[in-house]
Write a structure and sequence with these properties.
The protein is an all-alpha fold. The chain contains seven helices and no strands.
């Protein structure tokens, strides 16, 4: 199992570094972001976080027994992540966005594609 994660980190390191040094990310870290942009970010995030456990459940149901340690890891991680979508809703509510509007928000094609790919 540790080999799998080391391999994953190694293979994705360049992409992670590219993200961390992207001008938009650097600007947001250095200067913050306007409230409307932050609302959009959290609204998109809600739809990613909300689908996290269902996609993990779908993944665990498809894992062969040879990957039982991965299945167990996902079970544990799902437990840890349960309810995090409520945190995003709480944050949005704190900046004046109703839960109803977030739940009916249509995510971007990027979020839809990522969720679709994960399923």
């Amino acid at each position: 199992m540790p080999h799998f994660f080391i391999d994953l980190v190694t293979r994705t390191d360049e992409s992670r570094r590219s993200f961390e040094t992207h001008p938009v990310v650097l600007d947001a870290v250095a200067n913050g972001m306007p409230l409307p942009r932050y609302r959009t970010l959290l609204s998109e995030l809600y739809h990613l976080v909300w689908h996290f456990n269902p996609t993990c459940a779908a993944a665990t149901s498809r894992l062969a027994d040879e990957f039982a340690p991965v299945r167990q890891y996902l079970y544990e991680h799902m437990h840890e992540e349960a309810g995090h979508e409520q945190w995003v809703l709480d944050d949005l509510e704190a900046i004046g966005t109703s839960r109803t509007s977030v739940q009916s928000y249509s995510p971007s094609p990027h979020v839809l594609a990522l969720n679709g790919y994960n399923y």
